[in-house]
Amino acid sequence: MIQSIKVISMQSDNAAYTCQQITQYLGEQLGIPAEFINDIVCQEREYLLDTGQAHLGWICGLPYVRKMEKKPEQIELVAAPVMQQARYQQRPFYFSDVIVHQDSKYQRFADLRGASWAYNDPHSQSGYNLTRYHLAKLGESQGYFGKALEAGAHLNAIEWVLARRIDASAIDSTVLDLAFQTRPELKAELRIIETLGPSPIPPWVVTTNLPPELRQAIREVFWGMHKTAEGQAILARGQIMKMACVQDRDYDVIREMAQLAAAVVW
User: Fold this and answer.
1) What span, in angstroms and rounded, lies between the C-alpha atoms of 208 and 81?
2) What is the pLDDT of residues 123-136, one digit of tens each?
3) CATH number where 28 lies
4) What is the pLDDT of residue 3?
5) At 97, which helix (H) or strand (E)?
6) Residue 34: which domain range?
């Protein structure tokens, strides 16, 4: 008997409040205590999901497809956010915005040969896999950047660009949208010189150690959030229009990108 639902997020820290509010809403709708776990490092949160100690998670598309390759019986898709801004076309996808300092000499991705680059995490679609895929499509298999450093998070990479510690980085467009919302001054300090993608947006997943009827009830809460005043308000604070139903095949494009990107080394 499930006493409570434990929820984790692998998303940027500026999405944590939205995740907390979604968790609370879910618990209220289901009549089951729901706990958002965010006070431990990201790797430990993922471990809780992988071992079934956490039941629900918002994870990147690249880790999702890798988990499905290794142990497809352990997780199922719940939903994926559809973002509010017009460029998302009311569909569950997102982009990687390549940013530089406002005063940078770089005007487009093609100018970045030999530049310093930051990626957030090697398990990231938006910050790592998509960039390597883009390089592969250009026929650039190695040595394109002068150096490539792991920032650990998109928000860290943004700070590194602001401090001119590195020249450029690819940032999850939804992370950048929220950063611009909370820190409007960033729009005058950063420039987007190219947009990569789109990619299928990070999905919410549920572990299969929950009963099937509860897993389905969770899906229905997510799918219907935008239809209640409370749910709509929570989503809006995270710049989300609604939660959409998604299928495993929707993430095949990430699988294809990863296969091509594998040949690229920094």
Assistant:
1) 21
2) 999 999 999 999 99
3) 3.40.190.10
4) 77
5) strand 93-101
6) 5-84+202-251
Q: Is 237 within 8 Å of 17 (Cβ atoms)?
A: yes
Length of the chain: 266
How many C-beta atoms surround the C-beta of residue 37 within 10 A? 18
Q: Cα 112 vs. chain centroid, distance in angstroms?
A: 24
Overall domain count for the chain: 2
* 3-state secondary structure at position 42: helix
Rg of the chain in Å (alpha carbons): 18
Q: Using alpha carbons only, what angle is made at residue 104 by residues 102 and 107, rounded to the nearest 5 degrees?
A: 95
pTM (global) more than 0.90 = yes
Mean pLDDT of the chain: 97
Three-state secondary-structure class, residue 30:
helix
Q: What is the mean pLDDT of residues 212-217?
A: 98
Q: What is the pLDDT of residues 139-186, one digit of tens each?
A: 999 999 999 999 999 999 999 999 999 999 999 999 999 999 999 999
- C-alpha to C-alpha distance for 36 and 15, rounded to whole angstroms: 12
- 59's enclosing H/E stretch is none
Share of the chain above pLDDT 90, in %: 98
186 within some domain: yes
Closest of 39, 37, 32, 45 to residue 4, by C-alpha? 32
Tally of CB atoms within 10 A around 164: 12
- β-bridge pairing 75-83 and 204-207: antiparallel
Q: In the beta sheet, which residues pair with residue 31?
A: none
